[in-house]
Amino acid sequence: MSIYFYGCMTLDGYLADKNHNLDWLHESGSTEETSYEDFYKQMDIVIMGKKTFNEVLKMGDPKVFYPTTKNYVFTHDKNISYDDFNFIQRDVVEFVKNIDKNKHVWIVGGNSLLAPLLDHDMVDVMIVQIAPVLLGDGIPLFTQKEAVKRFELKEINKYGQFAEMVYIKK
User: Fold this and answer.
1) pTM to 2 decimals?
2) Most buried among 14, 38, 63, 137, by the most CB within 10 A?
């Protein structure tokens, strides 16, 4: 199993603005300008938090964005449902430990899922795109506990206004 983070942040390290909005990202470019399609074809499972799922809902039917993967949304809301999405109320680390070792798992969005996986050295590949935007405040991408985590830079790409860095766990 390989655990991937694939996402975009601002130059000052934010994943979303302070209201959890991604307008800055949509105004910076589109997925057609990035490696998204090729990346997504490799994924078997998508894991996201409820706030990320809500942002996807704003763009339309989530099934359109994640048509071929098994999709999980971590939430405390027990009354939510959506076709082709599984809503999970448990610890992301324990959940990921039980995934088939032959699967490729994409952690979408939120630091609340990424941080505990980084804390447990479970993220194998990080594909981080940087948009030419400064927010000054917002939701930071990285909020893991203080500890040195080393990755090796494998690749740098330019897609329109986005810089993409591909890192693998050392």
Assistant:
1) 0.92
2) 14
User: Of the candidates 3, 5, 20, 1, which has an alpha carbon nearest to the alpha carbon of residue 166?
Assistant: 5
Half-sphere exposure of residue 82: CA atoms within 13 angstroms, side-chain side: 22
- Number of CB atoms found within 10 A of residue 46's CB: 21
The CA distances from residue 58 to 19, 21, 23, 55, 65, in Å, are 14, 10, 11, 5, 12
- Residue 93, both tokens: 């680390």
Token pair, residue 129, equals: 């795109």
d(CA 112, CA 142): 9
Q: pLDDT digit string (tens) for 152-162?
A: 999 999 998 89
Q: Is 165 left (phi over 0), alpha (psi -120 to 50) or beta?
A: beta
CA pair distance 152, 13, nearest whole angstrom: 19
Residue pLDDT, tens place only, 80-95: 999 999 999 999 999 9
- Distance from C-alpha of 157 to C-alpha of 127, rounded to nearest angstrom: 10
Per-residue DSSP letters for 128-163? EEEES---SSSEES----S----EEEEEEEEETTEE
